[in-house]
Amino acid sequence: MKSALYRAPTVPAIRPSLPGARVVTLPAMPRPPVWPPAGPPGGIVHLTAECWPFARTGGLGEAVAALARHQSAAGQSVTVLMPLYRTVRDRVPHLQPVGPRFTVELAGWSTHARIFEAALDEAEGSGPERVLFLDLPEAFDRPGLYGEGGTDYPDNPWRFALFCRAALSILPWVAPEARVVHAHDWHTALAPVYLRTDWGKESFHRRLASVLSVHNAGYQGHCAPETLQRLGLPAWLYDWRLLEWYGRVNLLKGGMAFADAVVTVSPTHARELCAPDTGFGLHGAFAALEDRLVGITNGIDQDVWNPARDPDIAARYDAGGLAGKRQCKAALQRTFGLPEAAATPVVAVCARLAAQKGLDLLLAADVPAEFPVQLVVLGEGEPEYARRLAALAAARPDRVAVRLTFHDRLEHVLMAGADLLLMPSRYEPCGLTQMRAQRYGTIPVAHRVGGLADTIEDGVTGFLFDEYTPDGLVAALRRALDHRREPMAWRRLVRAAMARDFGWEGSVEQYQSVYQRACHDRARRRAS
User: Fold this and answer.
1) Cα-Cα end-to-end distance for the chain
2) Mean per-residue pLDDT for 399-425?
């Protein structure tokens, strides 16, 4: 089950105010020192609100699962801790309890909690090897992850604060070898705060280094100042250098202030976060981190996303033999109810239906009217975008197909069958779809921001545009379609895209370096 929206808890997500022209004067990022590629100083514990295949609304759950799985494959001791949502119980009915019930306290209130674990064969696909679920019924036995019907639960800050406290309290028991606590996004950003305040004198917790990953800085966890007391936080934390942000409490900002290292999901996005136009109102806090802020590009599972072995597509193929891709295109057209036309370019959009993904730009560009193409859209999200896209499909049923849902198999079908992928994102911290598309020889046309700029080589493996305008998108798509009219040049482009290495192995090594440094800094602070 997927939530339609992924939002900040109490106020709309802050979006960067991107001008018509691309910001080209991004600040230089200090280069972090490279640590020896030795083993990690101990175990790694990921604290996350989402983890595939148990619960996810977007890229967060998939990224956490893939990172943890590849860290385990590299010989590291890894534990993932996440809430036990009602949807997890529905997906994995035979959860096994781990240990007895225990008490969690928060601001003078207490409740009983318990840990559960899923058998590996209960999960769909190959998730992380060790995932523990914290059962806190008052907070997480609800229909949605973050809210219902497009409305966030008003107590989201309290829910995830309770999760963080429960997770930290059981670490000596469930992960005694832990040396690094890796928190993800605003939901678990209070873990570094609690670690250095409430657990600041506990010998086990004092030795733990904390790393905070910012997957999407548009979601920050805002709440009213009076919420601090309910979160068990002292009033002195309401300070502009810590958790205060324009008269509000900002949980993400607080986590950044206390973490030993902060990671975002691409080098270009790390620079963007330090710039006023693209820093989501936190550019000063990001810039102040200096060399504690590192950009590491996410990867994809190249065994799962491999057209030569993909069981979900009509025909398998590789860069040396592309005949199967033509069969996949025909299958895609049949699946989405479009005329089978080998010569007509199929342009795909696979995204959460939200303003961040450039849906306004896509609709304003009116691609089906501008070009002789078929447009296929796969995604779910905000009702207004769903309505407008459905209306477009109804007006041009032979040119536009829209599937207002999401399923992993359909994404494979789309990646294998499409000729081009549109990603006109307003901002994109990393993005995974453009990597998958290139692996399948589907050429991305994307806005030159964040991870899109880091993973698409303009004119070599895809096409990028700088101006965030309908004209900018149309010009880039025209370049791509002009290129497609030259068969030899197009095959070179497709083969170059399919040859890209987007595996997690290099990213895991970079995270290991960040952990090593964070542990070194933590040991130095303890000694001082």
Assistant:
1) 48
2) 95
Contacts of 471 (CB under 8 A, 6+ apart): none
DSSP-derived secondary structure for 504-521: SHHHHHHHHHHHHHHHHH
Give residues with Cβ within 8 angstroms of 528, minimum separation 6: none
Instruction: Show the CA angle centred on residue 401, arms to residues 395 and 403, nearest 5°.
Output: 120
Residue range 325-367, pLDDT digits in tens: 999 999 999 999 999 999 999 999 999 899 999 999 999 999 9
CB 423 within 8 A of CB 445: yes
Kindly list the distances between the CA atom of residue 442 and the CA atoms of 283, 312, 349, 421, in Å, as whole numbers in the listed order: 35, 16, 11, 6
In which band, very low, low, confident or very high, does the pLDDT at 150 lie, cut at 50, 70 and 90? Answer: confident
Residue 188 per-residue DSSP state: G
Coil/strand/helix, residue 297: coil
Q: What is the DSSP string of 416-475?
A: HH-SEEEE--S--SS-SHHHHHHHTTPEEEEES-HHHHHH--BTTTBEEE-S-SHHHHHH
CA distance 121 to 162: 29
Q: How many CB atoms neighbour CB 506 within 10 A?
A: 13
Pairing of strands 178-184, 109-117: unpaired
CB 262 within 8 A of CB 212: yes
User: What is the residue type of 281?
Assistant: G
